[in-house]
Specification:
Length: about 450
């Protein structure tokens, strides 16, 4: 009877892990779905939490199952098992996962970092800082992500790690130094702006402008017309000169168009509308226009399903070779109708003709309102704001106004809600000191 009951519990805990793995993987995919709002993801997080909690209360037997599946299971099970180990104070079990991790297994490394971002016990921080300084090729990027995400005081450890780690790990370490704002790292980070690796330069640029480094901001703007890595920090930190440089040097690049939307100058609207006719950059131009104007123009389009030839019957495959795609039997192709931001130049021109008088040259706009900390916080909180823009807005709040919300777009929903409540309170008090529609950098007015 005891053996049977033990077998039942093992099967139950394995099922918990399997379900937790599915929910974790599903949660990650939801960030790629524009029809799922960030608050909606909280429902999946609640279900995921229930399964992890079920493993925590399972004590030793559940820990044994987690240890086995952390080795044999998929990356979602690595995530769930690591969460359980952290809550049960099993540092040895987490270190065992580190030892078994293959340097080439990006999915398992990502899942391990995710779990530690959310669950790393405070009592482990000092020991993990020591591990970080080792410059271990597998541990460096994971622990750097954790320290930066949690804003842990590990500047010295990160600075030591950056000297020891190989190039692939450097973007994560640089990113983390920017997140915690470690001032002694400014000089070495500036050197990375001239790295031969674009990901390292991009990470260094964001890190430095978050740390209020005006020289880095000016360097990024000077490089932006020809260097893709410099465009985002120019849009997030630059002033009116960035508008001119990006307009003259954009040459149809989608990232330049989005940066112009972030800068929010009405003088860029005509330039952005002119790119709606170019299929490759039209989505970026539409998002930039929406970011600036808040017009809310949408359209429905039919998106045909991707055809997988190996799934077709021989007759269908032959028809496809002759140029006839599979259909539903009534001539209609397989696919679905989706709603997206309007990419019709004529519709946008008509809207601008009717609304241009609401916008004044020299004023920065976000969603049709003169940009201020309160407007920025509102747009971060809005469920309709795309994930990519929410990330930019979080960066901008820190870079422009010196306020770090201390969460990321993939933070648990409850943590985001708590952070937003604090940000809203700040915007109603200290945020009122900023002039709406003006350019700021590091909390100072730009001229």
């Amino acid at each position: 009877m005891a053996t049977s009951y033990r077998a039942f519990l093992i099967e139950l805990y394995e099922e918990y892990l399997e379900e937790a793995s599915f929910l974790y993987q599903q949660r990650r995919k939801l960030y790629e779905n524009p029809e799922i709002t960030w608050k909606k993801i909280g429902e999946f997080e609640g279900r995921l939490e229930a399964h992890i909690d079920g493993l925590v209360v399972g004590n030793k037997l559940a820990l044994d199952v987690c240890s086995r599946r952390a080795t044999e299971g998929d990356f979602g099970e690595v995530y769930a098992a690591t969460c359980v180990f952290c809550r049960q104070n099993r540092r040895d079990s987490v270190l065992a996962i580190f030892e078994q991790l293959e340097a080439s297994d990006a999915e398992r490394a990502f899942a391990l970092a995710d779990a530690l971002k959310y669950e790393l016990p405070d009592a482990w921080v000092a020991d993990f800082a020591t591990l970080l300084t080792s410059g271990h090729v597998k541990l460096g990027p994971i622990l750097a992500r954790v320290f930066g995400y949690r804003r842990l005081a590990g500047g010295a450890a990160l600075s030591s790690a950056i000297k020891r780690c190989a190039a692939p790990a450097l973007p994560e370490i640089v990113w983390a130094l920017g997140r915690i704002g470690y001032e002694p790292a400014k000089e070495p980070l500036f050197d990375y702006l001239r790295s031969e690796e674009a990901p390292i330069r991009a990470a260094a640029a964001i890190a430095l402008v978050r740390m209020d480094d005006a020289a880095a901001m000016e360097y990024c703007i000077s490089q932006a017309p020809s260097a893709p890595w410099a465009i985002a920090p120019s849009g997030l930190a630059g002033g009116r000169e960035a508008v001119v440089l990006l307009t003259n040097g954009a040459k149809g690049k989608g990232d330049s168009l989005l940066a112009l939307g972030l800068l929010g100058e009405p003088t860029a609207v005509s330039f952005l509308m002119s790119h709606l006719e170019e299929a490759e950059v039209a989505p970026a131009a539409a998002m930039a226009l929406q970011c600036l104007t808040g017009a809310g123009l949408h359209e429905e389009i039919f998106v045909p399903d991707k055809i997988e030839e190996d799934e077709l019957f021989d007759a269908e495959r032959e028809e496809l070779r002759q140029g006839k795609a599979p259909n539903r039997g009534d001539g209609r192709p397989f696919g679905s109708t989706v709603t997206r931001l309007c990419q019709d130049p004529q519709v946008w021109r008509q809207w601008w003709l009717a609304n241009a008088n609401r916008f004044s040259t020299g004023i920065r706009y976000r969603g049709g309102r003169p940009l201020s900390p309160a407007v920025l916080v509102d747009m971060i909180a809005a469920e309709v704001t795309p994930y990519s823009l929410r990330q930019y807005f979080l960066e901008e709040l820190a870079i422009r106004y010196g306020y770090d919300v201390c969460f990321e777009v993939d933070s648990p929903v409850e943590q985001q809600l708590t952070g937003l409540a604090k940000a809203e309170a700040w915007s109603r008090s200290s945020g009122q000191e900023f002039q709406a529609g003006a350019y700021y950098f590091g909390g100072r007015l730009q001229h």
